[in-house]
Design brief:
43% helix; binds adenosine monophosphate; Rossmann fold; binds zinc ion; 15 helices; globular; 18 strands; cytoplasm; 456 residues; alpha/beta; 18% strand
Length: 456
């Protein structure tokens, strides 16, 4: 299995630390708002990575953190804590905000058929581990105190910035950043003190003063706790390369004198026109927005699979609609097939080559469609192989039942009632009946030829 390693800038053969086992750490959401579909692109990419590892018979331990403290509105360690900001926005406590958006996030993962991580781990549940790590860094001379916090001294680490290949250019660009009392522009907060003039909701005692952890330290502390150091694969969105992951590496490697992770994988951005989709701007689209437009979250997943994870993807409504049509077409074909029997070895071989070539899902989808159109294999044989492919795609193909065009009497009765409501122009009644039918596992479509009902 080959994967592109941001650290070496090469596509490399993947070799796990322990035979047959893989430890994966994925940076999770900052739970101060809903995830937007750009964020969700990153989690789908990580899910595909994990499913491909499983397809290759690895046992995967997948850890995802929940950032519920310490992520400031500005990457340069200034600005407000996003959690406290979210709490003010909604008139709730930061703890309530964290709980609400964590639940919403998990629901999004489920809707997108993302296999849940082995463990979600919250930053606020691991404050002691973070303080211990900062103590080690202090003992080893990597930490210094200012009036607003404890900072990591990046000048003490000769290979600081190796992940992003940070050179003079970036450092010059960084010079525009507010230095405050920092010794070097790239130094970053390990611990921030609670502001004297402001009551924070989330704060803890530490050897340096009351406050809260910096954003990066949580991932160093929690990855070591659950996966050890080094572990196999660390992943996240591409924006994490120059700051967050660079600083995770700095802390973990300075503290323990060994690499943090062997492979670093990064998913490219989802764009809206020229801009990246961001939680702070008004081009913010959630999975709920898609669902409200009758778009199936799995159609969004299908759209994502059509672009390689290391390529930028421009969001458009017409693209999701086309993906939804493509997915429905796929479901309709599979509906006509009987029980799986036999398998198509030649296609399975090609498929494995594609997914093991740095997660090439666009090529893997093309192989699936070639197989569908192949005149030689019978449908039942195609079905075995395509259901196997879907262990990676995760498009819910195993839930597609053979179309037994006769509807059960109870559904027919509801459809009849709904037709009557439509004739009477009683739209709210007709809408309620549609929801009732859908809840029973059937799709209702009003076409020029009349109402069509089929199994989901
Ligand atoms: P956050 O909740 O802001 O910490 O971000 C969660 C994840 O989404 C991180 O891995 C980010 O790198 C990723 N991310 C943020 N914006 C985008 C985007 N527009 N497209 C793809 N991934 C993104
Ligand atoms: Zn992280």
């Amino acid at each position: 299995m080959k994967i592109y390693n941001t650290l070496t800038r090469k596509t490399e053969e993947f070799k796990p630390i322990k035979n047959g086992r893989v430890g994966v750490y994925a940076c999770g959401p900052t739970v101060y708002n809903f995830a937007h579909i750009g964020n969700l692109r990153t989690y789908v990419f990580e899910d595909i990575l994990k499913r491909i590892l499983l397809y290759n018979d690895y046992k995967v331990k997948h850890i995802m953190n929940i950032t519920d403290v310490g992520h400031l509105t500005d990457d340069a360690d200034s600005g407000e804590d996003k959690m406290e900001k979210g709490a003010k926005r909604e008139g709730k406590t930061a703890w309530q905000i964290a709980k609400f958006y964590t639940t919403a996030f998990k629901k999004d993962l489920k809707d997108l058929n993302i296999v849940a991580p082995t463990k979600f781990t919250k930053a606020t549940d691991n404050i002691k581990e973070q303080i211990d790590l900062i103590k080690t860094l202090e003992k080893k001379g990597f930490a210094y105190k200012t009036t607003d916090g404890v900072y990591f001294d990046t000048s003490k680490l000769p290979d600081y910035g190796k992940l992003a290949n940070l050179k003079n250019q970036e450092l010059k660009a960084g010079a525009r950043v507010e230095m405050g009392e920092k010794k070097n522009i790239t130094d970053f907060a390990l611990w921030k003190f609670s502001p004297a003039d402001q009551k924070r909701q989330m704060e803890w005692l530490s050897p340096w003063g009351k406050g809260f952890p910096g954003w990066h330290i949580e991932c160093s502390a929690m990855s070591a706790k659950y996966l050890g150091q080094p572990f196999d694969i660390h992943c996240g969105g591409i924006d994490h390369v120059p700051v967050h992951h660079t600083n995770e590496i700095a802390q973990s490697e300075a503290a323990n004198d060994k690499p943090l992770a062997n492979y670093w994988l990064h998913g490219e951005f989802m764009l809206m026109g020229e801009d990246k989709m961001a939680k702070s701007s008004d081009n913010f689209i959630t999975l709920e927005t898609l669902k409200n437009k009758n778009l199936n979250p799995l159609a969004y997943r299908y759209l994502l699979l059509q672009t390689h994870y290391r390529k930028q993807l421009n969001f458009s409504w017409s693209a999701v609609e086309a993906a939804q049509n493509g997915l429905e077409h796929l479901y309709n074909i599979i509906k006509t097939w009987g029980r799986p029997k036999g398998n198509c070895e030649a296609y399975e071989k090609k498929f494995l080559e594609a997914i093991n070539n740095d997660l090439d899902t666009p090529a893997a989808l093309a192989i699936m469609w070639d197989l569908i159109k192949d005149p030689i294999y019978p449908p039942e044989t195609k079905k075995t192989t395509i259901l196997k492919f879907d262990k990676v795609f995760g498009l819910g193909l195993n839930k597609i039942k053979k179309d037994s065009s006769k509807l059960p009497a109870s559904i027919q009765k509801l459809v009849h009632k709904r037709n009557q409501a439509r004739t009477d122009k009683n739209w709210s009644e007709s809408d309620n009946l549609r929801k009732e039918i859908e809840a029973l596992g059937y799709i209702v479509k009003d076409t020029p030829e009349g109402t069509k009902v089929s199994k989901i």
